[in-house]
Predict the structure.
Amino acid sequence: MNQDWNERFLNDFEALSANGATSGGGVERQAASGGDLKNRQWFEELLKELGATVTYDEIGNQFGLFEFDPALPFVGLGSHLDSQPLAGRYDGAYGVLAGAHAAARLAERINSTGEKPLRNLVVINWFNEEGSRFAPSMMGSSVFSGKLELQTALQSTDLAGTTVKEAIAQAAWGPVKTAPEISEYAEIHVEQGKELEKSGNQIGLVTATWGARKFQLTVKGEQGHTGSTLMADRKDALFGASLVIASVRRLTDNYQPGELQASVLQLTLEPNSPVTIAREVKFNVDLRSPSSEVLESAQQELDSIILAAEDESKTSILKEQTHHWDLNPYPRDGVELSRQVVEELGISHQEIFTVAGHDSTNMKDLVSTVMLFVPSKDGISHNEAEYTSPEDCLAGVKVFTEVAAKLIFS
Ligand code: GLV
Ligand code: MN
Ligand code: MN
């Protein structure tokens, strides 16, 4: 039976990866876009075939309920099916499918042995984890965990001005029900780093997350003719932005490798004409570190960079924090439970930090949580070339199933 389940997992993963597939072997499934809608519909049918009842909540989280006893709370097994633009096929999707298969395997076991679980299972596809179309990232799990107001999330817009509320209404996901009560949570994800590949270990037991600070910067200048506006008179928003952009990248040179990651992203400019000086430029700055002190000092340095850029470009720059999370440990009981599983199964493993945010970053602050990694080839992610071998994928599903078993039976 295990052999059949393994084959079925690989086949299902191929079918899932065909939804929103790109010509370079990746996927394009930004939240509530065509690729995401098609994939969610496909996943709803798969969940039903596996024996689940499917419901949604108001922020568009998709739940596959395996209810063994209505009096029991649920263990959540989740991740996300949405993707970045031109993304890899594993980020998020691997974990959601692993959750569905783990739940189905356990439902089959309960049916055949008559064992009595102490918890039900719910497979969760969190809405808009990626935050590429609508900010902030981890939106569905942020609303579920009470860190983000539903109404605030629904008002978030994409670059075309469409709100989350409009996108969800158009998708017409249903039935919309109150989210199930979750007593424990587990997630498995590709590492998106090189640690497991370097050590040759098959499973990472995530013990903590790096902290992150995300900002939107708006540079305000003055629109003018590119030829006739005297250099001394210019208030060029793109010049102001460029001074910040290069300095944010160079900021990392002040720290040891691995202490600070700093990026500039999603730049828009007005009026974006080849013959007119930009009056306004918006872009995002993303700072990450495993040290709160480093994050704090990088943030102060960012403020100095902004002041210097304002002065040199004669623009004004507004900085707004859009999302943040602290350097934070995962609950120790979850790490120990998964360690017990990998030791029993004889699967090579190590403790590991996560640099990326995950829906478990939110869930761990609400309930006891397990977070696991499988290896990523060359650490590549948010790129069509993202890859995890079938053997590593299957080892992950096996471990994840046993983690879920411990959570529902003990
Ligand atoms: C996740 O969404 C991240 O920002 O790392
Ligand atoms: Mn992810
Ligand atoms: Mn991602």
